Amino acid sequence: MLVRRRPDILPSEITPKGIYENRRRFIQAAGIIAAAGLGASALMRARPARAVTKLSARPSPLSVSETPTSFKDVTTYNNYYEFGTDKTDPSETSNTLKTRPWTVAVEGEIKKPKVYDIDELLKLAPLEERVYRMRCVEGWSMVIPWDGFSLSELIKRAEPTSKAKFVEFITLADQAQMPGIGMAILKWPYLEGLRMDEAMHPLTMLSLGLYGETLPNQNGAPVRVVVPWKYGFKNGKSIVKIRFVEEQPKTTWQLANPREYGFYSNVNPEVDHPRWSQAKERRIGEFGKRPTLMFNGYGDQVASLYAGMDLKKNY
Ligand SMILES: Nc1nc2c(c(=O)[nH]1)N[C@H]1C(S)=C(S)[C@@H](COP(=O)(O)O)O[C@H]1N2
Ligand SMILES: [Mo]
Q1: Rounded mean pLDDT of 28-43?
Q2: Angle at 207 between CA 26 and CA 72, to 5 degrees
């Protein structure tokens, strides 16, 4: 997705000067945060190594058999606008994200509201390693071994009421840790949502790690959502709140540009993005392009969720 200052500005109207100034302000903001945390002289030294914890996760029958994208590509080619809009920004600036202590509030139309400590969440259900195809709306894809469990494990413990029709996922928005929050790139906090049956689908994951380790900050530490048949932006990172609601949520990308980003956002090669075709994708690490598959190749598992819906209208 291209960065726009206002949804009504055409990309052709964004001047190189505008992009340059946005970038310059971002670099300044990132520098201030890093200096506050480390002391200015530490900026000259190497970044502190992240605290990595190995996870023991059993292999999952839901995995695809394709070769995973390299750990390096998975962790250095990212979209995480709270840490900047360039693909390399999140891996370069997200060391300021503090992932302990961390809590996730589960609330709304449920009988058992609860605030989970992240360490409690890690033990909620046995961890599985699930190798999923992921596809960004920008036209690239990866294969990522995620460690976590089905979101349904958490939902069933929350005991949703009959009014719970949708689930909202809300990301941390702390300007002291996230240089992008000071900029009007998107409406913060980043909010995504699913319909209840999508959220309950066994493929839908709460991910706490990848490649057998706790999540790198740039991939959404300490906990993020993974919905492999939908475009990447549906997979909210660094979740602090999960809220059950009656009405369909207004998601961050819908608010930014309703014509380009719908609520469903299922991977669908037949529905072009208004500014580009979605028929093909580039698998990161490969040359050339491969055809994009309906529901990102998960049609056998998820197509029934959308039976009778017009997927060109519900894009
Ligand atoms: N909070 C938050 N979550 C986010 C984003 C973001 O900018 N902020 N970007 C989304 C997009 S567009 C994509 S493609 C995926 C990328 O996830 P990855 O970097 O772990 O591959 O994260 C999604 N989740
Ligand atoms: Mo994306």
Answers
A1: 68
A2: 55
For residue 144, the ligand 1 atom closest to its alpha carbon is: 21
For the stretch 14-23, pLDDT in tens is 445 555 677 7
Q: Residue 177 gets which letter from DSSP?
A: T
Q: Which fold has domain 11-306?
A: Sulfite Oxidase; Chain A, domain 2 (3.90.420)
**Bridge partner residues of 96 (DSSP):** none
Token duo for residue 315? 């894009």
**Among 12-21, 164-173, 175-184, 251-260, the least confident range:** 12-21
- CA dist 267 and 306 (Å) reads 13
3-state secondary structure of 166: strand
Q: Is the CB of 230 under 6 A from ligand 1?
A: no
Q: Are strands 58-59 and 140-150 parallel, antiparallel or unpaired?
A: unpaired
What span, in angstroms and rounded, lies between the C-alpha atoms of 223 and 78? 16
Looking at the DSSP bridge assignments, the partners of residue 224 are: 207
* Residue 12 confidence (pLDDT) above 50: no
Ligand 1 site-directed mutation target among 71, 79, 146, most atoms within 8 Å of CB: 79
The CA 106 to ligand 2 mean position distance, Å, reads 25
Q: Tokens 């055409």 appear where?
A: 10
CB contact at 8 A, 87 and 241: no
Mean pLDDT of 253-270: 97
Q: How far apart are CA 119 and CA 167, in angstroms?
A: 22
pLDDT tens digit sequence for 247-257:
999 999 999 99
Q: Which atom of ligand 1 is nearest to the CA of 172?
A: 1
Determine the Cα–Cα distance for residues 307 and 271; give it in Å rounded to an integer. 17
